[in-house]
TrEMBL record, chains A, B:
It is an enzyme of class 3 (hydrolase). It comes from Duganella aquatilis. Belongs to the peptidase M20 family. The lineage of its organism: Bacteria, Pseudomonadati, Pseudomonadota, Betaproteobacteria, Burkholderiales. The keyword Translocase does not apply. CDD domains: M20_bAS. Its EC number is 3.5.-.-. Binds 2 Zn(2+) ions per subunit. This is Hydantoinase/carbamoylase family amidase. It comes from the Bacteria. Zn(2+) 1 binds at residues 79, 90, 186.
Length: 406, 406
């Protein structure tokens, strides 16, 4: 069994970097704070005797040799970047649970046949740079290194330049790195486990996701003298689409999701009718056919709104991945480790994307969920219980040992 | 008659300060660019032999003595701050038309009995700092100097500090300054004159205005795993109110106006359900009773939305002034000057607020409108014809001479 106190202490230590007043963490990908977080974790990895490899997209792999190093490593990992209003556990838990597994193996002087690796992937959150899950996406070839390097934040800074600046543009070619099996522990980020009072979520699949940028262009004009009938109000037209995004998701329960999370209004002055509004759309479903139906309904609604309003409306898909069922062998490894340890458990479909879905394109993969308070994440008040985090890490240890062999 | 070419040349010279790529001007109140614009105009005033007074809120008065300086001055003026996407004429025209009147009187060696003053008022636009029409508002006692000094921009900078920084916190107590009569020339900022093919708008009244800040507070959570039915999506609730603002205005034609111009979404990340949305509401009407009805309907809708959604919604009125009918003597002075000069004319209610409505609380006041292209202002493509600007300035000259006496 792993050391739950040590795991908790490491989580709290890492959470100091970018800590917010409300108890959350703001450590956006490739910022100075991200560098500090990376340095801390790499330092811990070295202390635990692991060797470090960094690839060209900044993914970091910390390796503990096995007795047969010709075997591909059994890998675990996640990310340490956070949302602008993020919590202490999202991603961070997956990385530090992996570290805790290695520390435990060291304590117990256990040698595995296959090597063990703990990875942290670059820019999983996708809130500073799109595409989301960038590091694992480049690693598995879902998109190119060039695409990723060219991605810009709102200030126009690129991933390529920022990686260089913080010293994490490594030499290794992404993907030039075999994987035997991949496991990822994560807080659920939803309310299902807590509601059902279960400790371990076995994850059969992750919902597919479509992200869009929508731009509505009207004509800015003075809010006083411009008669209502002569306006081309980009915000009013945008609000219709924003409402439809939610209406579409509501038509496809229980796994339809629709969210507008990001809005920019131009010129954003209180006495100017908005001339342009840009906003994001996030659609999800665990069934790819339904996800596609949602996509089609949204495009049709935008066409209708365009002709009714006479305003220019552009829509561009900026990210997409299909639903990802995990490998039966890895799902079973998680299920049997949970049974062996005697934790209460249920299956939970993941609504959030995870690096595991890209790792799953290269190797058998599976995930382990633990409950988080009120199902809340992407929020500074995100919280999780030490005993649940410890349980998830124990399941990880046993699932990895099953694959890596002692 | 005034010199239309000289007026145009001065307008184009001032428009270089803060010129935007699209041919507009961005010279927000109390920025470095505002200081440059102020310095240029003050320099021109001195060249025209005027003495300069600056008051504690940064209003600038440029004075040409009369033959009887015991008489209160006949004043004209406007503002030189602009919107973030502003044009060359809004406000600037009123100030430079006043300057052109003085230059013309100098050329023709005309002495007036009462002194003539050209004022420019601080932060008329209200887009960097609220309240709008701040300088003239403090001057007439609509709100206090302390309130104005404490006003903050989005970066937290205050009016008091910014006035000091640009060197325009003068010694004179605002309002400690008699006015005999006040005239203001301005582009119409609406489509009425152009539609009717008239050159001069006589302005009987200005619409009243109510501004609000509305904050909807939900709960930020992850866009993927959070089921639709468990969300507290602050943006979705906000879009209902945003649509109602327009619906209310549409119920009170022809002078009802409703606009949401400014929106901020928190945390503004594409995979986070918005936890908080702040937005502005702008309601106007020329009839105070109807304006109040609109106000009541909006509050009732917000109450209804609050109880239906269960989200916290706060609404605060941040600016209000009632409709302002102008003084019959000044309206007549404009009307008869227009008739004498033979320009085509009609009455136009002003949808935009102007410094004249605050000056009107201290002295008889009136306004002169000229057409602007497509009725567009608060937009970089704002435009006006030199011949119309010249005509408005001639009307100003004659209306002022009638009141100041030769
Ligand atoms: N786990 C997580 O928050 N991933 C970010 C991508 C997503 O929005 O699902
Ligand atoms: N004239 C003008 O644009 N004034 C600003 C205040 C308003 O929005 O009416």
């Amino acid at each position: 069994k792993i050391n739950g106190d040590r795991l908790w202490a490491s989580l709290m230590e890492l959470a100091k970097i970018g800590a917010t007043e409300k108890g959350g963490v703001k450590r956006l990908a490739l910022t100075d704070l991200d560098k500090q977080g990376r340095d801390l974790v790499v330092g811990w990895g070295k202390e635990a005797g692991m060797s470090i490899t960094i690839d060209q997209i900044g993914n970091v792999f910390m390796r503990r040799d096995g007795t047969n190093n010709a075997l591909p490593p059994v890998m675990t990992g996640s990310h340490i970047d956070t949302q602008p209003t993020g919590g202490k556990f999202d991603g961070n838990y997956g990385v530090l649970a992996g570290l805790e597994v290695v520390r435990t193996l060291n304590d117990l002087k256990i040698k595995t046949e296959a090597p063990i690796e703990v990875a942290f992937w670059t820019n999983e959150e996708g809130s500073r740079f799109v595409p989301v899950m960038m590091g694992s996406g480049v690693f598995c070839g879902a998109f190119s290194l060039e695409t990723a390097y060219a991605a810009k934040d709102v200030d126009g800074k690129t991933v390529g330049d920022e990686l260089e600046r913080i010293g994490y543009k490594g030499p290794q070619v992404p993907g030039d790195h075999p994987i035997g099996a991949y496991f990822e522990t994560h807080i659920e980020q939803g309310p299902v486990l807590e509601d059902a009072d279960k400790v371990i979520g076995v994850v059969p699949a992750v919902m597919g996701l479509s992200w869009y940028d929508c731009v509505v262009t009207g004509m800015e004009a003075h809010a006083g003298p411009t008669p209502m009938g002569l306006r081309k109000d980009a915000l009013q037209v945008s609000t219709r689409i924003m409402q439809e995004v939610v209406a579409i998701a509501n038509r496809y329960p229980p796994y339809g999701r629709g969210t507008v999370g990001m809005v920019q209004v131009f010129p954003n002055s209180r006495n100017v009718i908005p001339g342009e509004v840009k906003f994001s759309i996030d659609l999800r479903n665990v069934n790819d056919e339904l996800l596609n139906t949602m996509h089609e309904e949204m495009l049709a609604f935008i066409d209708k709104t365009r002709s009714e309003s006479g305003l220019k409306i552009s829509i561009e898909r900026v990210s997409y991945y299909p639903p990802c069922p995990f490998h039966p062998e890895c799902v079973d490894a998680v299920r049997s480790a949970t049974a062996k340890l005697g934790y209460s458990t249920m299956d939970v479909v993941s609504g959030a994307g995870h690096d595991a879905i890209y790792a799953a394109r290269l190797a058998p993969a599976g995930m382990i969920f633990v409950p988080c308070k009120d199902g809340i994440s992407h929020n500074e008040i995100e919280d999780a219980k030490a005993e649940h985090l410890e349980a998830g890490c124990n399941v990880l240890l046993h699932a990895m040992l099953e694959r890596a062999r002692v």
